[in-house]
Design a protein that fits this description.
By secondary structure, the chain is of the alpha+beta class. The chain has 17 helices and 13 strands. Helix content is 45%, strand content 10%. The N and C termini lie far apart (59 Å). Bound molecules: protoporphyrin IX containing FE.
């Protein structure tokens, strides 16, 4: 067993980012001694055929088939797997015991290391970064974008509605959120297909070398874009970050880069995947489409329930001090995987969890996580999904998956169908 580095000696200095020495265990030969063997489960959820056959159904089944917390052993990393709603809330609300440092899986050059900001920054520094961008991403900031999002959604749909069919993911699911994101960031629309290609590889490829190559290209592009904004400021978020100050000092080059880079990762694939999942369900449930049409005033409740039912990603944490969670002993430097979609299916909190029920009593949903790291783009995502639903339902009659098409899910850290051919 490797010697575990002590978290006590780890000091997170965002201005001088060093690769943390917390080990990453992977595979059955690297199970720490304190893990009870009866809690070990060997399967890689993201690539398991049962998962890819129906990811959300698979995660709902976990509540019936597995203990509430188990130690998941995979070739990509060994982690405590947490899926009960209450346990997830506990982990996510206790950053002092469950930290974000080194919790992001994307590989980086140890000789030119940077932190993903704000994702990998723990309190108290974390809030200082969020304060820079939160005014733009808060509900009032996002409300100012509604007209732009609505126009873009309408234009996209008008481009294909007359043809009676579209491949949803490329015709609408991808271009809507990515083009809005590029505008917010102040990056050129021509980069849309290239960004999409890089992000897709980084989030879904199982080939670490391919991921590394895509990431290298993205790094080079973003560094040039940042230099350009430093020389010629504009109203976009890249420029805002490039000129931002914390504690009376300008952000260092690595802070600016790590911040822009994480927004890029967080903003490109998530809304896309959420839209794809939701539209697949709509296409398969025409009666529910009519229900949504008939309840225009409930649109935010509709969006919230769809986000619960089709949440697309996860939270990872590192244990900073020995803790017992729901009767399970976790030790310093253990890794924890909070399976947010599964927590949204906890039957004790959401009875009949796979059922889409717009009248459910309001409970905390975990699609965007909770606690200090709750998604910075949550209000933007909600707005985009709301507007996409409204504009689509205004323009497209009853629609369905094109006959003969088989829907396949992509492996990787964001859940969603790879293609979605629709017809009306
Ligand atoms: C449906 C769409 C989205 C979903 C489901 C989603 C989900 C999440 C989740 C689960 C986290 C927490 C990760 C963790 O706990 O480790 C997160 C964090 C984050 N997300 Fe999103 N996200 C979405 C859209 C976006 C968009 C559009 C952006 C950018 C414009 C964005 C930017 C971020 C950032 C910056 C963080 C880190 C926050 C922090 O550490 O303080 N997200 N997101």
């Amino acid at each position: 067993m490797n010697v575990i580095a002590s978290a006590d000696v780890y000091v997170q200095d965002p201005t001088n980012p060093q690769p943390p020495s917390i080990p990453r265990f992977a595979g059955p030969d690297q199970i720490p001694d304190h893990v009870p063997r009866e809690l070990v489960r060997e399967f890689s959820m993201m690539t398991a055929p049962e998962f890819l056959a129906g990811p959300h159904e698979f995660m709902a089944r976990l509540h019936r088939e597995q203990p509430p917390i188990f130690y998941n052993v995979t070739p990509f990393g060994n982690m405590w797997f947490v899926m009960k709603h209450a346990d997830a809330l506990h982990v996510l609300r206790h950053a002092e015991s469950f930290a974000n440092r080194d919790a992001t899986p994307f590989p980086r050059d140890p000789d030119d290391y940077f932190f993903f900001i704000p994702q990998e920054i723990d309190p108290p520094n974390h809030r200082k970064y969020r304060n820079i961008v939160d005014p733009l991403f808060c509900p009032a900031g996002i409300a100012r974008l509604e007209g732009l999002i609505r126009q873009r959604a309408a234009d996209l749909i008008d481009g294909f509605r007359g043809g009676g069919e579209c491949e949803f993911t490329t015709a609408f699911g991808r271009p809507l959120p990515v083009s809005v994101f590029l505008d917010i960031m102040g990056l050129p629309q021509e980069m849309l297909p290239t960004f999409v290609e890089w992000a897709d590889i980084m989030i879904h490829s199982q080939d670490r070398e391919e991921v590394g190559r895509a990431f290298t290209k993205a790094i080079a592009y973003l560094k040039t874009a940042i230099a350009e904004k430093q020389a010629h400021p504009d109203n976009g978020v890249v420029s805002l970050i490039a000129h931002a100050e914390i504690d009376g000092r300008r952000l260092s080059e690595k802070e600016v880069f790590g911040f822009v880079c994480f927004l890029w990762i967080g903003g490109l694939d998530t809304v896309y995947a959420a839209l794809n999942n939701i539209w697949l369900w709509l296409a398969e449930n025409p009666d529910r489409v009519e229900e949504i049409r008939s309840r225009p005033d409930d649109i935010m409740a509709v969006v919230e329930e769809l986000l619960r039912r089709f949440s697309v990603t996860y939270s990872a944490r590192v244990v900073t001090q020995d803790v017992v969670l729901n009767g399970v002993q976790m030790k310093q430097n253990d890794r924890v995987f909070v399976c947010l979609p599964a927590a949204n299916f906890d039957p004790e909190v959401f009875p009949d969890p796979l059922k889409v029920d717009f009248d459910r009593p309001r409970k905390t949903i975990l699609a965007f996580t909770v606690g200090v790291h709750s998604c910075m783009g949550g209000h933007l995502a909600r707005m985009e999904i709301k507007v996409a639903l409204q504009e689509w339902l205004k323009r497209i009659p009853a629609f369905h998956v094109k006959p003969g098409e088989r829907i396949a899910y992509k492996p990787g850290g964001v859940i969603g169908p790879a293609r979605l051919p629709l017809a009306w």
